[in-house]
Amino acid sequence: MNDTVDKLVIFLAKRDGIDKLVKTFQYVSKLVNWHVEATQPGIAQRFKHWEVASGLSRKAFRTGRFLTGFNLLRRNPGSTPTLRLLAVLANSGEMVYWFFDHFLWLSRIGTLEAKLARRMSFISAFGEAFGYIFFITSDFIMIKEGLVKERKLLGSKEDSKDVEESLKQIKADRVMRLMGVAANIADLIIAVADIEPNPFCNHAVVLGISGLVSAWAGWYRNWPS
Fold first, then answer.
1. Which InterPro entries match (predicted)?
2. Domain that holds residue 194
3. Burial class (CB in 10 A: 0-12, 13-18, 19+), 20
């Protein structure tokens, strides 16, 4: 019990940890609002306020986050030319997303003109979707490379602690990358809903489930080991 509490404290001390918790509030409230909208409009309105407040607070808390893309490229540009190119494209799209998200937040709280919100939302979502496509591609490439290494290790005649440790690392990395793929696909659906509104992506249930998949996959990836 104490270990879980300690891990929760560490998790919530991270910016990403708080973001995933508030994102959970945001999309749970969206689903509750949709569920009771027709039968209990008063309660639905309260959850709508919670959803909007959670979304705006997340945007405020992410101020300056677009700079992390530069740091990620500097520290881990990729092991091959292909992965380096994918990293540049992915992080460039994400930096556009975070940067214009600042203006979207300012327009929605009334600091900038409200009419800018739609334009900023489109640019931000377009950058987000652009980046996620390359993040997903990069993760699939790394998963494939991990499977090749795993088969080689399993096919070798060596039976040592080093081989066992390498296999554990490959499997752990694969789980983390699959979580990343799940989160990025879910966020890609949310971004498409902003870029090109449509009945499927913009449905409250699709958005709600996508938001929770993204939040909980991110929660898993950021939870202290």
1. PEX11
2. 2-222
3. buried
Alpha carbon 129 to its chain centroid, in Å, reads 11
Contact 194, 125 (CB under 8 A): yes
Number of domains in the chain: 1
If one counts every other C-beta atom within 10 angstroms of the C-beta of residue 192, the result is: 20
Q: What is the pLDDT along the chain (225 residues), one digit of tens a residue?
A: 778 888 989 998 888 899 999 999 999 999 999 999 999 999 999 999 999 999 999 999 888 888 887 777 777 666 788 998 999 999 999 999 999 999 999 999 999 999 999 999 999 999 999 999 999 999 999 999 999 999 998 887 677 788 889 999 999 999 999 999 999 999 999 999 999 999 999 999 999 999 999 999 999 999 987
